[in-house]
Structure to design on (219 residues):
């Protein structure tokens, strides 16, 4: 594979935010006596738009929780107050430095809002230089639709087959596959089911492993 651009998800991939987000949902559900189904977090992680809202509507009481959880989840003052670098996933800074130093284009492709993503990135001690950012509030269709990745590739002027997508969610992995891009799964909170496993091309335990993947690929 000839990789010219690397596309990053944000939550759970660049930053350890999914655990906090899940706890917000669990706390809210417990307070209101709502039972979240076993597959709940697999379904909502990395998702957005109509697919997310349709699923939320299918879970009794979940629509009541959505506004409360979103208000807490995307409270920018909270994320900006987090200690510098404490949310970084292992290898985050090193991978960005490697990509910057080896002429790879970098895109940030998150289902969250641009303002939220930038707040997280500004809480890193080393500047994370990137070439484009495409977020959930900038596209019509959310993952697993491939729009967010295809939009980033178009902006970067790179063909889909020359992009490597880094993801931790089922929705993101499926979106990368549908975009005709290469992908690498970096595990966080989601355990791949059969459909996700079939769509995963590469797996690395941390972002540092992506450097090794690119090095092996270039040989």
């Amino acid at each position: 594979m000839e990789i010219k651009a690397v596309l990053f998800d944000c939550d759970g991939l660049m930053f350890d935010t999914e655990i906090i987000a899940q706890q917000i949902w669990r706390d809210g559900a417990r307070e209101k006596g709502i039972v979240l189904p076993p597959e709940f977090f697999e379904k909502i992680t990395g998702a957005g738009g109509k697919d997310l809202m349709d699923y939320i509507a299918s879970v009794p009481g979940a629509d009541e929780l959505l506004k409360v959880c979103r208000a807490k989840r995307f409270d920018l003052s909270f994320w900006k107050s987090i200690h510098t670098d404490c949310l970084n996933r292992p290898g985050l800074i090193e991978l960005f430095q490697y990509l910057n130093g080896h002429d790879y284009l970098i895109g940030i492709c998150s289902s969250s809002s641009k303002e939220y993503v930038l707040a997280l990135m500004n809480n890193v001690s080393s500047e994370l230089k990137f070439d484009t950012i495409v977020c959930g509030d900038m596209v019509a269709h959310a993952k697993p639709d491939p729009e967010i990745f295809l939009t980033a590739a178009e902006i970067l002027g790179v063909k889909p087959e020359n992009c490597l997508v880094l993801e931790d969610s089922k929705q993101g992995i499926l979106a990368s596959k549908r975009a005709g891009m290469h992908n690498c799964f970096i595990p966080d909170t989601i355990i791949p089911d059969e459909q996700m496993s079939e769509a995963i091309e590469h797996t690395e335990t941390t972002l540092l492993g992506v450097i090794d993947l690119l090095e092996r690929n270039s040989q």
